Amino acid sequence: LCLDAMEDVARHDHIGTVVVVSGDSDFMPLAQKIKASGHRVVGLGARGTTNGHWASSCHAFHYYEDLVATTC
What we know:
Elements lengths: L1 H10 L5 E5 L6 H9 L3 E6 L6 H6 L2 E4 H8 L1
């Protein structure tokens, strides 16, 4: 997944933002690489299981519960 995301960002100029739906801090290196390439990273995860370091490594992070609450 991480390799595909990096390849897609490099190959397709129209991609400006990458959205990662996960609360796992294993995606932090991906966020750092995407940010270093000049692109935006947005994360989405569950409040109870999302690693705080992962959330803060994104340009923006949204909690699933907050999104569900605003649409109901």
